[in-house]
Specification:
Layout (H helix, E strand, L loop, with lengths): L3 E5 L18 H11 L3 E3 L8 H10 L3 E4 L2 E3 L6 H17 L4 E6 L20 H20 L3 E5 L9 H10 L4 E6 H6 L4 H8 L3 E6 L1 E2 L1 H9 L4 H6 L3 E2 L8 H10 L4 E5 L10 H19 L2
Parallel strand pairs: 1-2, 1-11, 2-3, 4-5, 5-6, 6-7, 7-8, 8-11
Antiparallel strand pairs: 9-10
Helix pairs in contact: 1-11, 3-4, 4-5, 7-10, 10-11
C-alpha cells in the first residue's frame, strides 16, 4: 500500500486571495469535483465551514478527509503567547478532523496578497532577525507538537521565506519540530530548483504541495516587477504536468527521502480559463502516473 495519499486544494475552483476568481462556484460543486477526480483529501478554503460539526460531514459525504488547512502566522509582529492564543480555533478544527500537520506561513509582513505591491518589495530578514524568528517559530511548533500537530511551514514568494537562501536560514535557525510544506511552484518562482531543494530539505518535509509553473509567465512577471496576484491572473501556475517542471526528477527526489503523507495539488488559476473539473481530472491522472513511475 502506498504511503502517500492525494489531495487537492479548492484553489482549482476558487481563489482565497482573489474572490473574483471562482467566487460564484459553490463549495458543494468543489467538493463533488474533488471526489469525482479521484482525490481522497482536501485542504481548507474560505468557503469551508470552520467547525468540525459542520465541516466533517460535508467532507465525508464526498469521500474526503481534511489533509490540512492554512494558518496565517504573525510571529514577526506578535509574541509566541499571542500566537498560541490566536491559533486555538484553527488548531481545534484540524485536530477534530484528524489532521496531522498544520500548513502555515508568515503573513504579518507579506506582500503576496496585495495585487498592487510588486514581489520585489517583499521584506527580507537579516540573519539576526532570522535567528529571533526561528526561536519563536520553534517554540510555537513545540507547542503544536504537544497537541499532536506538526507545524508544516510554507515557503512562499512574497514572504520572508522565498529564496533558497531564505530556506538555508530557515534550516539553520529553526528546530526539528518545525516541519516544512514544500511547494514545487514556489520553490521555482523563488529562484530554486525544486528537485535539488527536495533533496536538501527532505528531512524536514512533512507536507507536499505540487503545482507546475509556466516559466515564460514567471520570467515576464520578474522582468516587469509584477505582483504575485498579477502573475496568478496571467497564468503563472498550473497543475502538475501542464507546465515546464521536470516531474520525473521531482518525484525521484521525493522517493529518495521516503516521503510519507499527503501530496496536494495546489495550482491556482482562473477557473473561467482553466475549467476546474478538467484540470482536477488531469492533475489526478498525472500525479498517479508520476507516483507509480517513482514507486512511491
Amino acid at each position: 500500500m502506498s504511503k502517500v495519499q492525494l489531495a487537492i486544494s479548492p484553489l482549482t475552483w476558487s481563489n482565497d486571495d482573489l474572490p473574483s476568481l471562482g467566487g460564484n462556484i459553490s463549495l458543494e460543486t468543489c467538493l463533488a469535483g474533488m471526489h469525482k477526480a479521484g482525490f481522497l483529501g482536501s485542504e481548507m478554503g474560505v468557503k469551508y465551514p470552520r467547525t468540525v460539526q459542520e465541516l466533517k460531514p460535508k467532507l465525508e459525504a464526498n469521500g474526503l478527509q481534511l489533509a490540512s488547512g492554512w494558518y496565517s502566522i504573525e510571529l514577526c509582529a506578535r509574541s509566541v503567547e499571542e500566537e498560541i492564543k490566536a491559533v486555538q480555533p484553527h488548531l481545534a478544527l484540524l485536530k477534530g478532523c484528524g489532521c496531522k500537520v498544520m500548513v502555515g506561513g508568515e503573513v504579518s509582513n507579506t506582500v503576496h496578497g496585495d495585487i498592487n505591491i510588486p514581489l520585489a518589495n517583499r521584506v527580507i530578514l537579516t540573519e539576526k532577525e532570522w535567528k529571533e524568528y526561528g526561536d519563536k517559530l520553534t517554540t510555537f511548533a513545540d507547542y503544536l507538537l504537544e497537541q499532536g500537530i506538526r507545524l508544516a511551514f510554507h515557503h512562499h514568494v512574497g514572504t520572508i521565506c522565498e529564496t533558497p537562501q531564505d530556506l538555508d536560514l530557515f534550516l539553520k535557525y529553526t528546530g526539528e519540530s518545525v516541519g516544512l510544506t514544500f511547494d514545487t511552484g514556489h520553490a521555482t518562482y523563488g529562484g530554486g530548483d525544486a528537485a535539488q531543494l527536495i533533496r536538501k530539505l527532505g528531512h524536514r518535509i512533512v507536507h507536499l504541495h505540487t503545482k507546475d509553473i509556466r516559466l515564460d509567465v514567471m520570467k515576464k512577471a520578474r522582468a516587469h516587477n509584477d505582483s504575485f496576484l498579477t502573475s496568478v491572473l496571467d497564468g503563472v501556475f498550473t497543475i502538475p504536468g501542464d507546465g515546464d517542471l521536470n516531474w520525473q526528477d521531482i518525484f525521484a527526489a521525493v522517493k529518495e527521502f521516503d516521503y510519507e503523507g499527503w501530496i496536494v495539488v495546489e495550482a491556482e488559476q482562473d477557473p473561467a480559463i482553466a475549467e476546474p473539473q478538467t484540470y482536477a481530472d488531469m492533475a489526478y491522472k498525472n500525479l498517479t502516473t508520476y507516483i507509480e513511475q517513482a514507486r512511491l
